[in-house]
Amino acid sequence: MESYASECGETEAVAEKPKVVLGVSGGIAAYKACELLRRLTESGHDVRVVPTASALHFVGAATWSALSGHPVSAEVWSDVHEVPHVRIGQEADLVIVAPATADMLAKAAHGLADDLLTNTLLTARCPVVFAPAMHTEMWEHPATQENVATLRRRGALVIEPAVGRLTGVDTGKGRFPDPAELFEVVRRVLARGGLAQDLAGRHVVISAGGTREPLDPVRFLGNRSSGKQGYALARSAAARGARVTLVAANAALPDPAGVDVVPVGTAVQLREAVLKAAADADAVVMAAAVADFRPETYAAGKIKKKDGQEPAPIALVRNPDILAEVAGDRRRPAQVVVGFAAETDDVLANGRAKLARKGCDLLVVNEVGERKTFGSEENEAVVLGADGSETPVPYGPKEALADTVWDLVAARLS
């Protein structure tokens, strides 16, 4: 997007800020949207906040106006000469409703327009994202689920709510996602130029992180994997409309918005969780660094150092080959299986051999080391296909590699 201004007789291009409408409906999680607003404005987005009248009971108009730099109203009758009920939606590059209550989802699904926000939703021709927040019973009610299905069918991105503490002492699904993770959704949708919902209606399973094999109560055999690539894959898939199950092994990262996270520790636990989730999955991406071996025995007490004695050798046994098992025993005929190969030498040759040995459809091959890939925000790889294809991904953010992987998976699913 560019606008052109003339100054001192010269015309130069000035990049416009992306225009985001932040709709806020009347739930207790409205206060958390202030953090989302702060992240959006500080990262260079022009944000117009459109609250409902109920939302203003939780956070006042003065707060929204001060944080956004724009006047705030819930009424269609304010500044009528500017036709805000039409103009705001028409000019937006993205609309996100956060939190989206059950009432707001129902109004949006049925096309009601009784305030400024619902009018904006009807006039918007840009990507629309809903971040629901409500009690578990309200989220699971058939009426709400039907409204969500309707919105998704029309192309909106409705993020799955998080699981956790709700209002009062209740706990369950319906919690407002982490604002920082919602910001990542907005950023990813805008970066891709819209809502490419090529994974809508699909269930994808992703493993991430590194397994730890306990030796005694305080020690384990592990690896350097941070889980960042797997989490990038999860965020990207959720932004493209998929239902995402993320099996996370020892990853100290916030849960991605709209993703069901299953925490695990060991390779055996990861295998159990992946096989269970893969039963109805359209795609399985094994990005976790799974330990090849584990100690044969587990010491119930801490192994002590003895003066004058060398430590006893640690006997190892093989862990299950989860990638080969998933690829060889697909529960769904059209399931796409993706593996990762971390190599230190002869990267492509070893990758091709592993691809054939494992039987997966795609294999992401990258060179790793103490200061390469593991723990980094960037990655570089080649995606090898069982059909003989090679797709190089140049050095860059891990989310770029994630998008390439899903482009290739989506093409095979279609």
TrEMBL record:
It catalyses: N-[(R)-4-phosphopantothenoyl]-L-cysteine + H(+) = (R)-4'-phosphopantetheine + CO2; (R)-4'-phosphopantothenate + L-cysteine + CTP = N-[(R)-4-phosphopantothenoyl]-L-cysteine + CMP + diphosphate + H(+). Binds 1 FMN per subunit. It comes from the Bacteria. The keyword Membrane does not apply. Residues 19-186 form the Flavoprotein domain. Transmembrane segments: none annotated. Keywords: Decarboxylase, Flavoprotein, FMN, Ligase, Lyase, Magnesium, Metal-binding, Multifunctional enzyme. GO terms for molecular function: FMN binding; metal ion binding; phosphopantothenate--cysteine ligase activity; phosphopantothenoylcysteine decarboxylase activity. This is Coenzyme A biosynthesis bifunctional protein CoaBC. It comes from Streptomyces alboniger.
